[in-house]
Structure formats: structure tokens, C-alpha cells
Amino acid sequence: MSLVKITGLSKKFRDNVVLDSIDLDVKKGDVIAVIGPSGTGKSTLLRCIDMLEKPNKGLIEFGDFRFDVTSRNKKDIVALRQRVGMVFQTFNLFKQKTVLENVMEGLIVVKKVPKAEAEAKALQYLGKVGMLDRQQYYPRQLSGGQQQRVAIARALAMEPELLLLDEPTSALDPELVGEVLDTILKAAEAGNTMILVSHEMSFVRKVASRVIFLENGHILEDGTPRQVFENPQHSRTKEFLHKFY
Ligand code: ADP
Ligand code: MG
User: Fold this and answer.
1) 52 CA distance to ligand 1 centroid (A)?
2) From ligand 1's centre to the CA of 212, what distance in Å?
3) Residue nearest to ligand 1 atom 22, measured at CA
4) Which of 10, 16, 17 to mutate to test the pocket of ligand 1 (most atoms within 8 A of CB)?
């Protein structure tokens, strides 16, 4: 069952073509890992799906909801963003808000959930990432790993149909990576549909149902972790993977 269908997604910055008519079909429960060299358009792909970048062309469909990415209709963009959650490399928590307030914010402001209900839901999701005991802390009082777990709770609490994670562990000290990967694995096992950009290859092998190798605006490789890691079709993929093994 197709959850999201992306067709002909294209993005250029001036004459730098970063995404060249990308097609991507995401099934419910898929965990799609996007790998590829630095500067190849992985972040741009995620940011275009959430309209944080304005693509030049393409269609994003969630079932009957059809979004032409050239639309600048605010209502349509809000409707798209209601379906998509994003976790950033640098967490991007609200610094002046507590952990609990961070997770409640989107529920109240975007989803218009009554405050008591938002609080209950925020606590529920903080529990899932093991951060209940830090609910009154401010981001600066937390480690990077803890901040990222709060950011994941914040995204999940919105119950998005599709969760995008852009190198969620690359800003962390090595000893903090594991706790965040465990949190992502749990979210995957709970059935959340995700697109994950990551260089953590052993984690990608474990968590992904599908791996995409992106290079120069094209999907060069698209298969199960086994297919892509053990039997890549392109020499560029082999060269890239060799850097990790
Ligand atoms: P990746 O995430 O794979 O490292 P990015 O999506 O960040 O790659 O970047 C892809 C290309 O787009 C790079 O050449 C980068 O310089 C360019 N790019 C990204 N964002 C911008 C921007 N806001 N303005 C101009 N060029 C950009
Ligand atoms: Mg990036």
C-alpha cells in the first residue's frame, strides 16, 4: 500500500541541479535510508518533501491529497506539513522552553489540541523516548543525545504519516549516538514510516527496509539493505561503500 508517492521532484539552486526529477514511492511502515556522498542532495530531498525548500517541479501525493510543489497556497502547505514530521541534525529545540513545552508546542499551535490533552500526549511520547524524568529541564541542561530524543518525541507526538530524519546522530559525541539510534529503532519497530538520511551504515542495515543511494540528483540504487550493500549495481555505489568498510 502506497503511503506517499513523489513524482518528478526537481530542485535547482541557480544553475546547480540538485534533484533531477526524483520518483519515490513510500509504502506504509517503510523505513527508507538515503545514503550518498556529501553535497549530493540528501538534505535537499528531505527539505523539499516538507517544503522547507521550494522545489521547482514535482508532485507529492498522500493518497487523495495531491500537492503540486509549485503551489504557494498556504493552506495546502500547512496540510502537507501536517502529514510530515522532521528531525534535524542539530535538534532545533526551542531554547527558552522546557522539554515538556517543546513537545506540547506543535500540538497546541499547529494541531489546536487543548492544553491538558497536549500535555498528556507530550508525556506519553516523552515516555517512549525515555525522557519523562527530564520534562522540566531546558535544552541547555541536556546532553546532545537527550536533546535529540526530545526532538524525536516532539516529531512523533504530532503523529505524522511520514517522519523525515536528516543525519540525526551526526552532531553527537560518539558515546551518545547509541541512545538516539535505539530510539529511532523503537520508532521504526512501532510501525512509523520514515525516510532517514544517515552515514551509520551498520544501523542502516539493521533498521532500513529499503536503501536508496543518491548521487548528483539521481537515485542510482534502490533496494533492500542486502541488495544495496552486498550487490550494488553501480561502481559509484561500490566506491562510496568502500569508504565505510
Ligand atoms: P547533502 O545533504 O547530500 O550533503 P545538500 O542537500 O545539503 O547535500 O546539498 C546539495 C547541493 O545543494 C550542494 O551542492 C549544496 O551546496 C547545494 N545547496 C544546498 N542548500 C543550498 C542553498 N540554500 N542555497 C544554494 N545551494 C544550496
Ligand atoms: Mg545533508
Assistant:
1) 13
2) 18
3) 13
4) 16
pTM above 0.90, yes or no: yes
Tell me what the mean pLDDT of segment 23-35 comes to.
Answer: 98
**Hey, is 81 helix, strand or coil?**
helix
Please choose from 9, 10, 13 the residue to mutate so as to test ligand 1's pocket, defined by most ligand atoms within 8 A of CB: 13
CA of 22 to the centre of ligand 1 (A): 16
Phi/psi for 104 (5° steps) reads -75, -30
CA–CA gap between residue 68 and residue 48 (Å, rounded): 12
ipTM for the assembly: 0.98
pLDDT digits (tens, 9 = 90+) for 9-23: 999 999 999 999 999
Instruction: Indicate the pairing of strand 84-87 with strand 162-166.
Output: parallel
CA distances in angstroms from 19 to 101, 138, 165, listed in the order given:
36, 38, 18
3-state secondary structure (DSSP) of residue 84: strand
At a CB cut-off of 8 Å and minimum separation 6, what does 176 contact? 143, 144, 145, 169
Evaluate the CA torsion angle 118, 123, 127, 131 in order and state its sign: positive
| Sequence-ordered strand ranges (E) for the chain | 2-13, 16-27, 31-35, 57-62, 65-68, 84-87, 162-166, 194-197, 210-215, 218-223
Q: Does ligand 1 lie within 6 Å of residue 16's CB atom? A: yes
For residue 136 and ligand 1, the question of a CB distance below 6 A is answered with no
